[in-house]
Amino acid sequence: MPKVNRNGQAVVLNDEQLTELFVALEQPHRLLFQICYYTAARVGEAVQLHADDIVAGRIVYRASTTKTKKTRDVAIAPPLAAVLKTTDLPRSGYLFPGRFDGHMTTQAADKRLRQVCDYLGLEGVSTHSFRRSLLTKMHNQGHSLRTLQQITKHADIGNLAKYLDVGQQEADQALCSLWK
């Protein structure tokens, strides 16, 4: 069930939809959601990143900002590395400073995402769509749930499996592929 009025699961975006969104979003929201996508981050983790959380080709999510309260570090994928290289990032403090003090709020990020999705006609998209989209894409490419679990640090692999979008056609093809 797609997400409607904050109910249901966030839709999984395909490559074309992701590109369309990243083109339509302005900075700093574009970079924020690219980080969410390329590192499978929750938006609440990403808005709290500091300039010094980007270290030696990795992004470090501090324990104090993660849902699990455990530090998580993720390799910076080549497409994200290219974006970071060409983006004027703060040298200290938050990567996504707030309008008044502290960091950008998740509500501000969500509001801008919803505005752009409305403009583009994309339904069911939420800040969690980026996390679900990456994990589904990796799973479809053959990466194991254990590999995905290492990236997300889900304690329960069953909860991780709920993120993945598997359609009936894919299930039918997998079953029939055994007898080809």
What do these coordinates show?
This protein is mainly α and 180 residues long. The chain has one domain (15-177): hpI Integrase, Chain A, CATH 1.10.443. It is built from nine helices and three strands, in the order αααβββαααααα. The protein has a three-stranded antiparallel β-sheet, with no helix packed on it. β1 and β2 form a beta hairpin. α1 runs antiparallel to α2 (29-39) and α2 packs parallel to α6. The longest helix has 15 residues, at 106-120. It is globular, with a radius of gyration of 17 Å.
| The CATH C-level class name | Mainly Alpha
User: What value does the average pLDDT take?
Assistant: 90
Instruction: Let me know the number of strands.
Output: 3
Q: Give me the strand/helix succession.
A: HHHEEEHHHHHH
CATH superfamily: Intergrase catalytic core
**CATH fold field value:** hpI Integrase, Chain A
Silhouette = globular
Q: Mind summarizing the main beta sheet?
A: 3 strands, antiparallel
Percent of residues in β-strands:
5-15%
Distance between the termini: 32 Å
Query: In what order do the strands lie side by side in the largest sheet?
Result: 1-2-3
Put simply, the count of helices is: 9
Poorly predicted ranges (pLDDT <50, ≥5 residues)? none
Features:
180 residues, mainly alpha, hpI Integrase, Chain A, three-stranded antiparallel β-sheet, globular
Quick take:
The chain is mainly alpha-helical. The chain has helices at 15-24, 29-39, 43-46, 78-86, 106-120, 129-140, 145-152, 157-161, 168-177; strands spanning 54-55, 58-61, 72-75.
